[in-house]
Amino acid sequence: MTYSDWGGRLVTFPEDRARHYRESGMWSDDPTGRRLHQIAHRFAERTAVISAEGSMSFAELDRRTDQIAAGLIRLGLNRLDPVIFQLTNRQETVLAWYGCIKAGLVPVATLAAHRMHEIGHVSRKVGAVGHIVEVRTAGFDLVEFAREHATGHPSIRHIITVGDESGRDQPGVTRLEDLGLETDPVAARSLVEQIEGQTDPLDVAAFQLSGGTTGVPKVIPRIHAEYWNNALLYAQRLGWDEHSRVAHLIPIIHNAGISCGLHAAHSVGACLVLATADAPAAFELMARTEATEVLIGHGHYQAVLTHDFDKARTSLRRVVLSGAKVPPELFDRVDDGAGHWAGQLFGMSEGLLTVTPLDSPAHARLTTVGTPIASDDEISILEPGAENELRDGGVGELCCRGPYTIPGYFDAPEHNQNAFTSDGFYRTGDLAAITVIDGKRYLSIEGRIKDLINRGGEKVNAEELELLLLEHPGIANAAVVAMPDPRLGEKACAYLVSVDGEPLLLKAVQEHLAQLGVAKFKWPERLEWVPSLPHTNVNKIDKKRLRAEIAAKLLAEADAHGVVA
To answer: What terms describe the molecular function in GO for this protein (predicted)?
Structure first.
């Protein structure tokens, strides 16, 4: 077998490191679909997935995804064809993911909320051949969007829908629910095994997306050798087994959804309880299915503090918190010393995952994000902008490399020159420190260098949004900064300078972004019109000052509202 380097656009691991990861057991020779099949054979009758749509055993999941893979192949899709995913958390999403993986296709993990600005760029970058969309998502017609996107696209040939219960035929559209139904399971398994026989461990298994530090998101290639193992290491760190029931609320097609939810649960034969972002409904599903584990992102911190969470916590053993500094009251809510354990996760689509070890003292679980999950993970805290390593306790840029941290973004040679150190460490852009507790070195996240706004786990790139705002003829200058939000952590606030002195309404600015096809979660949610933007003594826009200004304004407004109330 010979892996594809995508015409030189894929950055491969240096041979010495690749050889070490194989020898240490961090990498596997088996393709991802085969790993699922092995687990399904071992735990055939155990429940693999529970969602609002129903449940499915491992045997059923394995058999149906074999058929879907066969259907995709017979539809004309070829091994390594990229397929755009725009799906929410539902059982068919799991079927679509594994069906594509088994067919040797490469899922491209976009969001249902993405629009033409993001999808158009990413699909052309990877040469997407297929586009899988959900029929009903928050009032937006993704099927029509997929048709519009395919018009004039150089490579899109197939649109596949999920959730179309009408059964009606649409020209140029295939229902996922129909794929492979006529295929004998034995024949489908044989076809999948043929594809697996052609798959090299270094082949791309999936494309994830970065939060986007400059312009639209960068493409992150994850390979078969490491992707399933990455999830397995996470599950093992948390002590999961076939008796675990793992609840997941955030988008499953995110890297966190795959590595910490779908693949992680299934790597040990555990059941995935696939919930949605609607907290009351998610907690109800968790209670009904007796979920034992859950990952809580920052967007659900407030919900955990409500009584709705009480019904879910009865069966919970472990709660992993991720996305922002954990308030002590939240930690105490989920870690009560009565059988409920709380820890933290820090991770990125580019690779590195750190998770709290189960035996860590409460102080370490509250104040740090744990330790790397793989013995071959390497982390280094460097002086920002340089390659000088800092001593433990010093705050600098977190840099990392390891068996599942990418050696380079896909088709981004210029960006890669600055995103990696001279010895191959990925520059995360996060400010961090090593904190020593009881003789163990834990990682603490202290902020970030990158100009990103973390809106409930979704990353909004300030520079990208500023450039889009400046396309409006009425805006002369723009600076986008994070403003604090009690529920989501941060939202985007745009400081704007008007061309003619007349400010625009927020609705007009949002309509401008909608016309450009920008995902709604990126839109600014507050405008501050100013005569000019402040600058530092080196003539850069003083965003630190703007962030402090909007935080103070929000605090004053809250105080005033409290007095009135």
So the answer is: medium-chain fatty acid-CoA ligase activity
d(CA 338, CA 317): 10
Angstrom distance (rounded) from CA 311 to CA 307: 8
DSSP-assigned beta bridge partners for residue 322: 297, 345
Q: What is the pTM of this model?
A: 0.89
The percentage of the chain sitting over the pLDDT mark of 90, rounded to a whole number, equals: 85
Say whether 292 sits in a helix, a strand or coil.
coil
Give the pairing of strands 54-57 and 47-51.
antiparallel
* CA neighbor of 493 nearest in space, from 514, 465, 518: 465
Alpha-carbon span 171 to 480, nearest angstrom: 43
Q: Which of 552, 556, 547 is nearest to 479 (CA)?
A: 547
Q: Is 239 left (phi over 0), alpha (psi -120 to 50) or beta?
A: left
Rg (CA), the chain: 23
pLDDT at 503 over 70: yes
End-to-end Cα separation, the chain, in angstroms: 70
Q: What confidence category does residue 167 fall into, taking pLDDT thresholds of 50, 70 and 90? A: low
- The SS3 assignment for 422 reads coil
Pairwise CA distance, residues 107 & 532, whole Å: 45
Asked if 296 and 283 count as a contact pair (C-beta separation under 8 A), the reply is no
Which domains are present in the chain? 26-374 (3.40.50.12780), 455-564 (3.30.300.30)
Which residue, chain included where needed, has tokens 């490469």?
Answer: 106
